[in-house]
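so im writing up the methods section and need the Amino acid permease record in one place, dumping it here so i stop losing it
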Amino acid sequence: MPHRKPMLSLGQVVLFGLAYMTPIIVLGTFGVLAVVTKGGVSGAYIAALIAMLFTAHSYGRMASAYPVAGSAYAYVRHAIDDRLGFIAGWAILLDYLFLPMVIWLIGAAYLNSAFPEIPVWSWLLAFIAVTTVINLIGLRLASVINSVMMLIQVLVIAAFVALAIHYVLGDPTQPLWSLTPFIGSEQDQALPLLMAGAAVACYSFLGFDAVTTLTEETRDPERTLPRAILLITLLGGLIFVVVSYFVQLASPGHDFSNPDAAAYEIARNIGGDLFVSVFLIGLVVGQFASGIAAQASGARLLYAMGRDGVLSTTLLGRLGRFGTPVGGLLLSATVALLALYLDVLSAASFINFGAFIAFAMVNIAVVAHYYVRGSRRGPGDTLRFLVLPTIGLLAILWLIASLDARAITLGGIWLLCGIAWLAWLTRGFQRPTPELKLEG
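--- predicted struct ---
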Protein backbone atom coordinates (compact mmCIF):
# COMPACT_ATOMS: atom_id res chain seq x y z
CA MET A 1 0.00 0.00 0.00
CA PRO A 2 1.51 3.42 -0.93
CA HIS A 3 2.61 5.74 1.86
CA ARG A 4 2.23 9.49 1.98
CA LYS A 5 5.55 11.33 1.71
CA PRO A 6 6.41 14.41 3.80
CA MET A 7 6.55 17.25 1.29
CA LEU A 8 4.90 20.30 2.86
CA SER A 9 6.95 23.18 4.32
CA LEU A 10 5.91 25.61 7.06
CA GLY A 11 4.80 28.18 4.51
CA GLN A 12 2.73 25.66 2.57
CA VAL A 13 1.02 24.40 5.72
CA VAL A 14 0.22 27.96 6.83
CA LEU A 15 -1.12 28.75 3.36
CA PHE A 16 -3.24 25.58 3.43
CA GLY A 17 -4.73 26.57 6.80
CA LEU A 18 -5.44 30.13 5.69
CA ALA A 19 -7.04 28.82 2.51
CA TYR A 20 -9.22 26.54 4.65
CA MET A 21 -10.22 29.58 6.73
CA THR A 22 -11.04 31.54 3.58
CA PRO A 23 -10.12 35.03 4.90
CA ILE A 24 -12.68 36.68 2.63
CA ILE A 25 -15.43 34.93 4.61
CA VAL A 26 -15.15 37.84 7.07
CA LEU A 27 -16.97 39.87 4.44
CA GLY A 28 -19.47 37.16 3.56
CA THR A 29 -20.61 36.73 7.18
CA PHE A 30 -20.27 40.37 8.24
CA GLY A 31 -24.00 41.17 8.15
CA VAL A 32 -25.00 38.17 10.27
CA LEU A 33 -22.38 38.99 12.91
CA ALA A 34 -23.31 42.68 12.90
CA VAL A 35 -26.91 41.77 13.73
CA VAL A 36 -25.92 39.31 16.47
CA THR A 37 -23.47 41.73 18.12
CA LYS A 38 -25.47 44.93 17.46
CA GLY A 39 -22.58 46.44 15.52
CA GLY A 40 -19.65 44.95 17.45
CA VAL A 41 -18.22 42.55 14.86
CA SER A 42 -14.56 43.35 15.62
CA GLY A 43 -15.12 42.69 19.32
CA ALA A 44 -16.63 39.30 18.53
CA TYR A 45 -13.60 38.40 16.44
CA ILE A 46 -11.23 39.46 19.22
CA ALA A 47 -13.12 37.27 21.72
CA ALA A 48 -13.04 34.36 19.27
CA LEU A 49 -9.32 34.90 18.57
CA ILE A 50 -8.44 34.82 22.27
CA ALA A 51 -10.35 31.56 22.76
CA MET A 52 -8.84 30.03 19.64
CA LEU A 53 -5.27 30.96 20.61
CA PHE A 54 -5.45 28.89 23.79
CA THR A 55 -6.87 25.94 21.88
CA ALA A 56 -4.32 26.44 19.07
CA HIS A 57 -1.59 26.14 21.70
CA SER A 58 -3.08 22.82 22.80
CA TYR A 59 -3.28 21.53 19.22
CA GLY A 60 0.36 22.49 18.70
CA ARG A 61 1.46 20.62 21.82
CA MET A 62 -0.44 17.49 20.79
CA ALA A 63 0.77 17.67 17.18
CA SER A 64 4.32 17.68 18.54
CA ALA A 65 3.62 14.74 20.87
CA TYR A 66 1.78 12.63 18.29
CA PRO A 67 2.91 13.44 14.72
CA VAL A 68 0.29 11.25 13.03
CA ALA A 69 -2.82 11.90 10.96
CA GLY A 70 -6.16 12.11 12.69
CA SER A 71 -6.18 15.49 14.46
CA ALA A 72 -8.32 15.57 17.63
CA TYR A 73 -9.22 11.91 17.12
CA ALA A 74 -5.61 10.72 17.36
CA TYR A 75 -4.64 13.08 20.19
CA VAL A 76 -7.48 12.17 22.53
CA ARG A 77 -7.19 8.50 21.67
CA HIS A 78 -3.53 8.32 22.66
CA ALA A 79 -3.53 10.81 25.54
CA ILE A 80 -6.73 9.75 27.32
CA ASP A 81 -8.70 6.77 26.02
CA ASP A 82 -9.39 5.12 22.68
CA ARG A 83 -13.18 5.35 23.13
CA LEU A 84 -13.03 9.05 24.00
CA GLY A 85 -10.78 9.44 21.00
CA PHE A 86 -13.54 8.00 18.89
CA ILE A 87 -16.02 10.52 20.29
CA ALA A 88 -13.60 13.38 19.54
CA GLY A 89 -13.16 12.07 16.02
CA TRP A 90 -16.90 11.66 15.59
CA ALA A 91 -17.48 15.25 16.75
CA ILE A 92 -14.91 16.74 14.40
CA LEU A 93 -16.12 14.44 11.63
CA LEU A 94 -19.37 16.40 11.74
CA ASP A 95 -17.32 19.45 10.77
CA TYR A 96 -15.21 17.82 8.12
CA LEU A 97 -18.08 15.99 6.44
CA PHE A 98 -20.51 18.90 6.28
CA LEU A 99 -18.17 21.87 5.91
CA PRO A 100 -17.22 21.21 2.26
CA MET A 101 -20.92 20.90 1.46
CA VAL A 102 -21.68 24.27 3.07
CA ILE A 103 -18.72 25.92 1.34
CA TRP A 104 -19.76 24.67 -2.08
CA LEU A 105 -23.40 25.55 -1.46
CA ILE A 106 -22.50 29.13 -0.56
CA GLY A 107 -20.30 29.44 -3.64
CA ALA A 108 -23.09 28.07 -5.83
CA ALA A 109 -25.55 30.55 -4.30
CA TYR A 110 -23.21 33.47 -5.05
CA LEU A 111 -22.82 32.40 -8.68
CA ASN A 112 -26.54 31.86 -9.07
CA SER A 113 -27.15 35.41 -7.84
CA ALA A 114 -24.87 36.71 -10.59
CA PHE A 115 -26.12 34.30 -13.29
CA PRO A 116 -29.73 33.46 -12.32
CA GLU A 117 -30.36 31.70 -15.63
CA ILE A 118 -27.99 28.91 -14.51
CA PRO A 119 -29.55 26.84 -11.67
CA VAL A 120 -27.81 26.45 -8.31
CA TRP A 121 -27.46 22.69 -8.75
CA SER A 122 -25.31 23.15 -11.85
CA TRP A 123 -22.82 25.32 -10.01
CA LEU A 124 -22.88 22.95 -7.03
CA LEU A 125 -22.06 19.89 -9.13
CA ALA A 126 -19.27 21.82 -10.85
CA PHE A 127 -17.75 22.78 -7.49
CA ILE A 128 -17.90 19.18 -6.26
CA ALA A 129 -16.45 17.65 -9.44
CA VAL A 130 -13.55 20.06 -10.00
CA THR A 131 -12.51 20.15 -6.33
CA THR A 132 -12.60 16.36 -6.00
CA VAL A 133 -10.47 15.85 -9.10
CA ILE A 134 -7.85 18.33 -7.82
CA ASN A 135 -7.66 16.58 -4.45
CA LEU A 136 -7.50 13.13 -6.04
CA ILE A 137 -4.41 14.17 -7.98
CA GLY A 138 -2.73 15.33 -4.77
CA LEU A 139 -1.58 18.12 -2.50
CA ARG A 140 1.09 19.51 -4.81
CA LEU A 141 -1.52 20.64 -7.32
CA ALA A 142 -3.87 21.77 -4.55
CA SER A 143 -1.05 23.80 -2.97
CA VAL A 144 -0.30 25.64 -6.24
CA ILE A 145 -3.99 26.41 -6.86
CA ASN A 146 -4.44 27.59 -3.27
CA SER A 147 -1.49 29.97 -3.67
CA VAL A 148 -3.11 31.66 -6.67
CA MET A 149 -6.52 31.81 -5.03
CA MET A 150 -5.13 33.20 -1.78
CA LEU A 151 -3.50 36.00 -3.77
CA ILE A 152 -6.84 36.88 -5.37
CA GLN A 153 -8.56 36.87 -1.97
CA VAL A 154 -5.90 39.11 -0.44
CA LEU A 155 -6.19 41.60 -3.31
CA VAL A 156 -9.99 41.77 -3.03
CA ILE A 157 -9.84 42.14 0.76
CA ALA A 158 -7.20 44.89 0.44
CA ALA A 159 -9.34 46.73 -2.11
CA PHE A 160 -12.41 46.42 0.13
CA VAL A 161 -10.54 47.85 3.14
CA ALA A 162 -8.98 50.66 1.08
CA LEU A 163 -12.37 51.68 -0.31
CA ALA A 164 -13.91 51.49 3.17
CA ILE A 165 -11.21 53.80 4.57
CA HIS A 166 -11.66 56.20 1.62
CA TYR A 167 -15.41 56.16 2.23
CA VAL A 168 -14.98 56.94 5.94
CA LEU A 169 -12.49 59.74 5.27
CA GLY A 170 -15.01 61.30 2.91
CA ASP A 171 -17.47 61.72 5.80
CA PRO A 172 -16.28 64.46 8.20
CA THR A 173 -18.73 63.27 10.86
CA GLN A 174 -17.21 59.78 10.97
CA PRO A 175 -13.83 59.45 12.78
CA LEU A 176 -11.31 56.83 11.71
CA TRP A 177 -11.05 55.57 15.29
CA SER A 178 -14.03 54.35 17.31
CA LEU A 179 -14.69 51.80 20.07
CA THR A 180 -18.12 50.95 18.69
CA PRO A 181 -16.91 48.15 16.34
CA PHE A 182 -15.42 46.48 19.42
CA ILE A 183 -18.29 46.87 21.90
CA GLY A 184 -21.38 47.39 19.73
CA SER A 185 -24.14 49.94 20.12
CA GLU A 186 -25.78 48.33 23.18
CA GLN A 187 -23.00 48.68 25.73
CA ASP A 188 -25.06 47.45 28.68
CA GLN A 189 -25.38 44.07 26.91
CA ALA A 190 -21.93 44.11 25.29
CA LEU A 191 -20.45 40.96 26.86
CA PRO A 192 -23.28 38.46 26.17
CA LEU A 193 -23.76 39.90 22.68
CA LEU A 194 -20.05 39.68 21.88
CA MET A 195 -19.84 36.10 23.18
CA ALA A 196 -22.88 35.13 21.11
CA GLY A 197 -21.11 36.69 18.13
CA ALA A 198 -17.84 34.95 19.00
CA ALA A 199 -19.63 31.57 18.99
CA VAL A 200 -20.58 32.29 15.38
CA ALA A 201 -17.29 34.00 14.45
CA CYS A 202 -15.33 30.87 15.41
CA TYR A 203 -16.63 29.35 12.17
CA SER A 204 -14.15 31.65 10.39
CA PHE A 205 -11.24 30.16 12.38
CA LEU A 206 -11.87 26.55 11.41
CA GLY A 207 -8.65 25.73 9.62
CA PHE A 208 -5.92 26.06 12.22
CA ASP A 209 -6.89 22.61 13.51
CA ALA A 210 -7.46 21.15 10.04
CA VAL A 211 -3.77 21.29 9.15
CA THR A 212 -3.01 18.71 11.84
CA THR A 213 -4.55 16.13 9.51
CA LEU A 214 -1.59 16.82 7.19
CA THR A 215 0.97 15.80 9.83
CA GLU A 216 2.26 12.78 7.92
CA GLU A 217 2.77 14.90 4.79
CA THR A 218 4.63 17.73 6.57
CA ARG A 219 8.39 17.99 6.88
CA ASP A 220 9.64 17.95 10.51
CA PRO A 221 6.05 17.97 11.87
CA GLU A 222 7.11 18.10 15.55
CA ARG A 223 8.44 21.63 15.00
CA THR A 224 6.50 22.74 11.93
CA LEU A 225 2.94 21.99 13.08
CA PRO A 226 2.96 23.93 16.40
CA ARG A 227 4.41 26.99 14.67
CA ALA A 228 2.02 26.72 11.75
CA ILE A 229 -1.05 26.37 13.97
CA LEU A 230 -0.29 29.52 15.96
CA LEU A 231 0.66 31.48 12.82
CA ILE A 232 -2.57 30.50 11.07
CA THR A 233 -4.66 31.52 14.08
CA LEU A 234 -2.86 34.83 14.58
CA LEU A 235 -2.79 35.81 10.91
CA GLY A 236 -6.40 34.81 10.35
CA GLY A 237 -7.54 36.61 13.50
CA LEU A 238 -5.63 39.77 12.55
CA ILE A 239 -7.26 39.78 9.12
CA PHE A 240 -10.73 39.29 10.58
CA VAL A 241 -10.36 42.01 13.23
CA VAL A 242 -8.83 44.65 10.93
CA VAL A 243 -11.17 44.05 8.01
CA SER A 244 -14.32 43.94 10.15
CA TYR A 245 -13.26 47.13 11.95
CA PHE A 246 -13.01 49.26 8.80
CA VAL A 247 -16.09 47.68 7.22
CA GLN A 248 -18.04 48.42 10.41
CA LEU A 249 -16.86 52.05 10.27
CA ALA A 250 -17.98 52.32 6.65
CA SER A 251 -21.36 50.85 7.55
CA PRO A 252 -22.17 51.76 11.17
CA GLY A 253 -24.89 49.86 12.98
CA HIS A 254 -26.55 46.60 12.07
CA ASP A 255 -29.60 47.47 10.00
CA PHE A 256 -29.38 45.74 6.63
CA SER A 257 -32.11 44.88 4.17
CA ASN A 258 -30.65 41.38 3.95
CA PRO A 259 -27.98 40.52 6.58
CA ASP A 260 -26.88 37.45 4.61
CA ALA A 261 -25.92 39.70 1.69
CA ALA A 262 -24.88 42.79 3.65
CA ALA A 263 -21.42 42.81 2.10
CA TYR A 264 -22.96 43.31 -1.36
CA GLU A 265 -24.81 46.37 -0.10
CA ILE A 266 -21.66 47.74 1.52
CA ALA A 267 -19.52 47.00 -1.56
CA ARG A 268 -21.91 48.94 -3.75
CA ASN A 269 -21.94 51.88 -1.35
CA ILE A 270 -18.16 52.17 -1.16
CA GLY A 271 -17.14 51.09 -4.66
CA GLY A 272 -20.07 51.12 -7.05
CA ASP A 273 -21.36 48.42 -9.39
CA LEU A 274 -17.95 47.53 -10.83
CA PHE A 275 -16.51 46.75 -7.43
CA VAL A 276 -19.53 44.59 -6.59
CA SER A 277 -18.55 42.35 -9.50
CA VAL A 278 -14.93 42.20 -8.32
CA PHE A 279 -16.13 41.38 -4.82
CA LEU A 280 -18.31 38.56 -6.14
CA ILE A 281 -15.35 37.04 -7.99
CA GLY A 282 -13.26 37.21 -4.81
CA LEU A 283 -15.93 35.48 -2.75
CA VAL A 284 -16.39 32.67 -5.24
CA VAL A 285 -12.63 32.15 -5.54
CA GLY A 286 -12.37 32.09 -1.75
CA GLN A 287 -15.08 29.47 -1.48
CA PHE A 288 -13.37 27.31 -4.09
CA ALA A 289 -10.01 27.48 -2.31
CA SER A 290 -11.64 26.72 1.01
CA GLY A 291 -13.48 23.77 -0.51
CA ILE A 292 -10.19 22.24 -1.69
CA ALA A 293 -8.67 22.48 1.79
CA ALA A 294 -11.82 21.36 3.63
CA GLN A 295 -12.33 18.27 1.48
CA ALA A 296 -8.64 17.30 1.69
CA SER A 297 -8.60 17.55 5.48
CA GLY A 298 -11.85 15.66 5.94
CA ALA A 299 -10.71 12.85 3.67
CA ARG A 300 -7.50 12.48 5.68
CA LEU A 301 -9.41 12.20 8.94
CA LEU A 302 -11.61 9.52 7.37
CA TYR A 303 -8.44 7.76 6.19
CA ALA A 304 -7.01 7.77 9.74
CA MET A 305 -10.23 6.33 11.17
CA GLY A 306 -10.54 3.81 8.34
CA ARG A 307 -6.92 2.75 8.79
CA ASP A 308 -7.77 2.02 12.43
CA GLY A 309 -10.74 -0.14 11.51
CA VAL A 310 -13.04 2.27 13.37
CA LEU A 311 -14.69 2.94 10.02
CA SER A 312 -14.52 0.71 6.96
CA THR A 313 -10.88 -0.08 6.13
CA THR A 314 -11.80 -1.30 2.66
CA LEU A 315 -13.59 1.91 1.71
CA LEU A 316 -11.68 4.54 3.69
CA GLY A 317 -8.39 3.11 4.97
CA ARG A 318 -6.53 2.79 1.67
CA LEU A 319 -4.62 5.21 -0.57
CA GLY A 320 -4.95 5.60 -4.32
CA ARG A 321 -2.24 5.67 -6.99
CA PHE A 322 -1.41 9.32 -6.21
CA GLY A 323 -1.07 8.58 -2.49
CA THR A 324 -4.37 10.33 -1.71
CA PRO A 325 -7.30 8.95 0.35
CA VAL A 326 -9.65 8.19 -2.52
CA GLY A 327 -12.46 6.72 -0.41
CA GLY A 328 -12.65 9.73 1.89
CA LEU A 329 -12.61 12.17 -1.02
CA LEU A 330 -15.42 10.34 -2.81
CA LEU A 331 -17.46 10.07 0.40
CA SER A 332 -17.08 13.83 0.95
CA ALA A 333 -18.27 14.47 -2.61
CA THR A 334 -21.25 12.15 -2.10
CA VAL A 335 -22.27 13.80 1.19
CA ALA A 336 -22.10 17.17 -0.57
CA LEU A 337 -24.89 16.04 -2.91
CA LEU A 338 -27.23 16.49 0.07
CA ALA A 339 -26.86 20.21 -0.58
CA LEU A 340 -29.21 19.72 -3.53
CA TYR A 341 -31.98 19.39 -0.92
CA LEU A 342 -30.72 21.68 1.85
CA ASP A 343 -30.22 25.37 2.47
CA VAL A 344 -27.12 26.97 3.95
CA LEU A 345 -28.68 27.57 7.37
CA SER A 346 -29.80 23.96 7.81
CA ALA A 347 -26.47 22.57 6.64
CA ALA A 348 -24.28 24.89 8.73
CA SER A 349 -26.30 25.24 11.94
CA PHE A 350 -24.44 22.62 13.94
CA ILE A 351 -20.93 22.70 12.44
CA ASN A 352 -19.44 24.77 15.26
CA PHE A 353 -20.89 22.41 17.88
CA GLY A 354 -18.77 19.54 16.59
CA ALA A 355 -15.66 21.69 16.46
CA PHE A 356 -16.15 22.97 20.01
CA ILE A 357 -16.55 19.44 21.43
CA ALA A 358 -13.33 18.34 19.75
CA PHE A 359 -11.52 21.53 20.85
CA ALA A 360 -12.56 20.95 24.47
CA MET A 361 -11.29 17.36 24.41
CA VAL A 362 -7.92 18.38 22.91
CA ASN A 363 -7.41 20.88 25.74
CA ILE A 364 -8.10 18.06 28.22
CA ALA A 365 -5.70 15.79 26.31
CA VAL A 366 -2.80 18.21 26.85
CA VAL A 367 -3.33 18.08 30.62
CA ALA A 368 -3.64 14.29 30.55
CA HIS A 369 -0.57 13.69 28.39
CA TYR A 370 1.92 16.20 29.74
CA TYR A 371 0.79 17.15 33.26
CA VAL A 372 -0.79 13.91 34.52
CA ARG A 373 0.98 11.07 32.68
CA GLY A 374 4.20 12.90 31.84
CA SER A 375 4.53 14.57 35.27
CA ARG A 376 5.62 17.82 33.62
CA ARG A 377 4.88 19.97 36.65
CA GLY A 378 7.63 22.59 36.91
CA PRO A 379 6.56 26.28 36.94
CA GLY A 380 6.88 26.70 33.18
CA ASP A 381 5.36 23.30 32.45
CA THR A 382 2.43 24.00 34.77
CA LEU A 383 1.70 27.15 32.80
CA ARG A 384 1.98 25.42 29.41
CA PHE A 385 0.40 22.09 30.22
CA LEU A 386 -2.20 22.90 32.89
CA VAL A 387 -3.07 26.60 33.09
CA LEU A 388 -3.21 27.45 29.37
CA PRO A 389 -5.22 24.37 28.28
CA THR A 390 -7.59 24.83 31.23
CA ILE A 391 -8.26 28.41 30.16
CA GLY A 392 -8.79 27.12 26.63
CA LEU A 393 -11.26 24.52 27.90
CA LEU A 394 -13.24 27.10 29.88
CA ALA A 395 -13.34 29.45 26.89
CA ILE A 396 -14.66 26.68 24.65
CA LEU A 397 -17.34 25.70 27.19
CA TRP A 398 -18.45 29.34 27.28
CA LEU A 399 -18.70 29.37 23.50
CA ILE A 400 -20.77 26.16 23.54
CA ALA A 401 -23.15 27.77 26.05
CA SER A 402 -23.41 30.78 23.70
CA LEU A 403 -24.60 28.68 20.74
CA ASP A 404 -28.29 28.75 19.86
CA ALA A 405 -30.54 25.93 21.05
CA ARG A 406 -30.97 24.47 17.56
CA ALA A 407 -27.24 23.99 17.07
CA ILE A 408 -26.90 22.31 20.46
CA THR A 409 -29.88 20.01 19.79
CA LEU A 410 -28.66 18.89 16.34
CA GLY A 411 -25.12 18.48 17.62
CA GLY A 412 -26.38 16.41 20.54
CA ILE A 413 -28.21 14.10 18.17
CA TRP A 414 -25.02 13.62 16.16
CA LEU A 415 -23.09 12.74 19.34
CA LEU A 416 -25.76 10.22 20.39
CA CYS A 417 -25.44 8.54 16.99
CA GLY A 418 -21.69 8.33 17.52
CA ILE A 419 -22.07 6.83 20.97
CA ALA A 420 -24.49 4.23 19.57
CA TRP A 421 -22.00 3.29 16.83
CA LEU A 422 -19.21 3.08 19.41
CA ALA A 423 -21.35 0.82 21.60
CA TRP A 424 -21.85 -1.54 18.66
CA LEU A 425 -18.17 -1.37 17.68
CA THR A 426 -16.99 -2.24 21.20
CA ARG A 427 -19.77 -4.74 21.94
CA GLY A 428 -21.34 -2.60 24.62
CA PHE A 429 -18.06 -0.86 25.61
CA GLN A 430 -16.61 -4.23 26.66
CA ARG A 431 -13.57 -4.00 24.40
CA PRO A 432 -11.38 -1.18 23.11
CA THR A 433 -11.68 0.28 19.65
CA PRO A 434 -9.18 -1.11 17.10
CA GLU A 435 -5.52 -0.18 17.66
CA LEU A 436 -4.03 2.61 15.56
CA LYS A 437 -1.27 1.48 13.21
CA LEU A 438 1.14 4.43 12.94
CA GLU A 439 2.35 4.89 9.39
CA GLY A 440 4.78 7.59 8.39
